[in-house]
Amino acid sequence: MNQALNNQLSVSTEPLLRVRDLSLLYGPEKGCQDVSFDLYPGEVLGIVGESGSGKSTLLSLLSGRLPPQRGNIGYRDKQGQWLDLYSASEAERRTLLRTEWGFVEQNPRDGLRMGVSAGANIGERLMAQGVRNYQQLRGAGLDWLSQVEIDPQRIDDLPRTFSGGMQQRLQIARNLVSSPRLVFMDEPTGGLDVSVQARLLDLLRGLVRELDLAVVIVTHDLAVARLLADRLMVMRRSRVVETGLTDQILDDPQHPYSQLLVSSVLQP
Amino acid sequence: MNDLTQAPVRDAAYNFAYLDEQTKRMIRRALLKAVAVPGYQVPFGGREMPLPYGWGTGGMQLTAAILGDDDVLKVIDQGADDTTNAVSIRRFFARTAGVETTESTPDATVIQTRHRIPETPLHADQIMVYQVPIPEPLRFIEPSETETRTMHALSDYGVMHVKLYEDIATFGHIATAYAYPVMVDERYVMDPSPIPKFDNPKLDMSPALMLFGAGREKRLYAVPPFTRVTSLDFEDHPFEAQKWEECCAICGSRESFLDELILDDAGTQSFVCSDTYYCAQRVSQQEQGQ
Q1: A114 touching B, CB under 8 A?
Q2: ipTM score of the complex?
Q3: Is the pTM of this model over 0.90?
Q4: Closest by Cα among A81, A116, A114, A112 to A96
Q5: Cβ of A134 and B158 within 8 Å?
Q6: B247 is catalytic
């Protein structure tokens, strides 16, 4: 694992996302503060911590949805240009969010358009990018449904007729259709039962490796983190208390809180 | 019909065209902005009118603001000059403004319309005023007003095609038949009010000024003369206006927009022009020809 990671890092030495001193506080130790890290292409970064530790706030800041009080985020686009996320115009941020980035919500109902068919959900990003050919949109819809293991015959069905796991997979397809380089995920397996979770994780892991995606994934589930993430950040009371390779943190946690977190996982 | 031939007398109890001067000024200012930015929805301080929302209060306020002494007003409702909405609005302005009214399309200088553009081609001295129920074309997919405004500001119009995609996926063709979204001057997506898509091509490069007023939503927008107005579509499913196999049962027209009438319980159909003036004109021409 470490060997593979090192190889990956040496290939792509320049980071994709550069975060420095990011802070947004709603109150003392509420929110997140002083977060700095680099994210490299193809790397999966897990953010773990208990409820209220600032994971989701951090994700909102990173994905351009919530301006920080302090700090900055640099993103290196496809042309290799560095873009300061919050000094860029809103138009640029939006374009980024629907082309090179993706965001998978915890609740698929927030990330999907529930009133239109699965095919339209998948095609929306392409239409926003100016694809005006129905057959092409249709083709992309069928292709992505089969990639996320949904029966392509259900392309004209509304998402509300799908099960929770299918909705989540549809949301993933909808985000990946524009071949993004960076995807944010907020508890993508939350609210799903264990066997569906396992299948979804399996699928995600395959897609991430296949498409060489960089992913920032927020989760409170250490099993999810171990399965998907290359690197972990442990958050507690708005601060990052420990960062490191996933196996390192899970097998040999240094910070007392990380130790508590790891030891509190139930062993079946 | 008889009251139309009498010279209208203004009721002096009302200010000219019902609204007070300051209100008309405010609406004119908003109209100037709307004309300067084609297709952009300008908010205005909508007033209560003496009829309910949904009956054309937006259109009436615009008409009141632009009407002058020497204007000739025509009011149509679904193409017809003699339906309730058309008759009452025409009588309203005959009484409050004392302007001349007409049913003739070429003679009118201001035409207030509910959901049709006359078949007779418009000319440069005319102003069309549309009554608009929902001015926001993005509303069906995005309920938030701040969000739709941002989408307009950033030309973020991908979702407009989502609706057309759904049509094709469900019906095999674009089934939207009225309020068909258009792109104005390659910048703003606009709801052309619920006119049938048959009328959409008439908006493009029209010599007449088009004004749209939504009373309940308090928005107005405009298409200035000779502005490009294109209907949204897909490359492999291009925009297409309605066509009929039948011709008008009264005047025999094959070019006009036809209304379907059901004549009996057995479902016998008949088709007649929705534009009553156009139909009557053709009939009188045919009679003269004989």
Answers
A1: no
A2: 0.80
A3: no
A4: A81
A5: no
A6: no
